[in-house]
């Protein structure tokens, strides 16, 4: 049976397509894409012409069957999305889950992913993180989602669209307080790549005062809440210091 390759494509800069990704795309029998017109341009750029199957959020359940049929018939399929890594706030979950359930080989071809790129350059803790994807589009839903995350101590990461970014940062200030540390990664890997960082209030002000500030694509990263047992941790550090001082005094 064929192999299902999950191929990451660039998030803006075409040079980020890996050599391996272009080889896999060139050798695949079929390419399943979120938007065949959009991906058609990337494939044209690579000089690749292939049978394509459209697989997006609204038809994934129905179309996954056609992709599985191709795999069953021994053909290799490459799954791509409009940008970055498939399944990361993108279609593919239904297909990959079913392919695995049937014992098919599913192989990742790694590459660009907006939130990993953003975190790698943000300067926020990356040892523990919670990727939340897109927050609800409506303000009330968004606020409740943020309230549920307010005490989370891991770094929080969201995706947001340009027309909601200011509203979302306003909600963040409201729910997390104006002093929580925030970093926004905008238009990563593209000409106008920008990082905004500071307290939530500072980032909001910068965004609003920059005429192009809310244009483009955004990754929103929020420093986790201070652990609740902060005080006891401080206490332990104090005890440590005291013991060290006493040891130094020992004859
Ligand atoms: N699968 C993609 C990935 O691996 O990152 C994400 C797809 S999701 C539908 C699109 C969202 O990713 C955008 O709304 C934005 O939040 C984020 N994004 C994608 N490209 C970006 C870029 N170049 N700079 C900043 N954020 C980006």
Automatic annotation (TrEMBL):
<keyword id="KW-0963">Cytoplasm</keyword>
<dbReference type="GO" id="GO:0070677">
    <property type="term" value="F:rRNA (cytosine-2'-O-)-methyltransferase activity"/>
</dbReference>
<feature type="domain" description="Tetrapyrrole methylase">
    <location>
        <begin position="3"/>
        <end position="203"/>
    </location>
</feature>
<dbReference type="InterPro" id="IPR000878">
    <property type="entry name" value="4pyrrol_Mease"/>
</dbReference>
<comment type="function">
    <text>Catalyzes the 2'-O-methylation of the ribose of cytidine 1402 (C1402) in 16S rRNA.</text>
</comment>
<dbReference type="Pfam" id="PF23016">
    <property type="entry name" value="RsmI_C"/>
</dbReference>
<keyword id="KW-0698">rRNA processing</keyword>
<dbReference type="InterPro" id="IPR035996">
    <property type="entry name" value="4pyrrol_Methylase_sf"/>
</dbReference>
<keyword id="KW-0489">Methyltransferase</keyword>
<dbReference type="InterPro" id="IPR018063">
    <property type="entry name" value="SAM_MeTrfase_RsmI_CS"/>
</dbReference>
<keyword id="KW-0808">Transferase</keyword>
<dbReference type="Pfam" id="PF00590">
    <property type="entry name" value="TP_methylase"/>
</dbReference>
<protein>
    <recommendedName>
        <fullName>Ribosomal RNA small subunit methyltransferase I</fullName>
        <ecNumber>2.1.1.198</ecNumber>
    </recommendedName>
</protein>
<dbReference type="InterPro" id="IPR008189">
    <property type="entry name" value="rRNA_ssu_MeTfrase_I"/>
</dbReference>
<comment type="similarity">
    <text>Belongs to the methyltransferase superfamily. RsmI family.</text>
</comment>
<keyword id="KW-0949">S-adenosyl-L-methionine</keyword>
<dbReference type="InterPro" id="IPR014776">
    <property type="entry name" value="4pyrrole_Mease_sub2"/>
</dbReference>
<dbReference type="GO" id="GO:0005737">
    <property type="term" value="C:cytoplasm"/>
</dbReference>
<dbReference type="InterPro" id="IPR053910">
    <property type="entry name" value="RsmI_HTH"/>
</dbReference>
<dbReference type="InterPro" id="IPR014777">
    <property type="entry name" value="4pyrrole_Mease_sub1"/>
</dbReference>
């Amino acid at each position: 049976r064929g192999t299902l390759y999950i191929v990451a494509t660039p998030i803006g800069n075409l040079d980020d397509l890996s050599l391996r990704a272009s080889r896999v795309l060139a050798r695949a029998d079929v390419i399943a894409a979120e938007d065949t017109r959009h991906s058609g341009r990337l494939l044209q750029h690579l000089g690749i012409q292939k049978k394509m199957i459209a697989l997006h959020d609204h038809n994934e359940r129905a179309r996954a069957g056609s992709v599985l049929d191709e795999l069953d018939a021994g053909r290799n399929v490459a799954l791509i999305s409009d940008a970055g890594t498939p399944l990361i706030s993108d279609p593919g979950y239904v297909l990959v889950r079913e392919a695995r359930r049937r014992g098919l080989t599913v192989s990742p071809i790694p590459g660009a992913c907006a939130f990993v790129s953003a975190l790698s350059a943000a300067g926020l803790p990356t040892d523990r993180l919670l990727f939340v994807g897109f927050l609800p589009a409506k303000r009330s839903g968004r606020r409740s989602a943020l309230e549920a995350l307010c005490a989370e101590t891991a770094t929080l990461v969201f995706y947001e669209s340009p027309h909601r970014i200011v509203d979302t940062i306003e909600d963040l200030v409201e729910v997390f307080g104006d002093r929580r540390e925030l970093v926004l990664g905008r238009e990563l890997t593209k000409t106008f790549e920008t990082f905004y960082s500071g307290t939530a209030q500072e980032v909001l002000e910068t965004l609003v005062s920059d005429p192009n500030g809310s244009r483009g694509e955004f990754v929103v990263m929020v420093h986790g809440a201070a652990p609740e047992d902060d005080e006891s941790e401080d206490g332990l550090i104090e005890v440590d210091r005291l013991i060290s001082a006493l040891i130094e005094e020992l004859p």
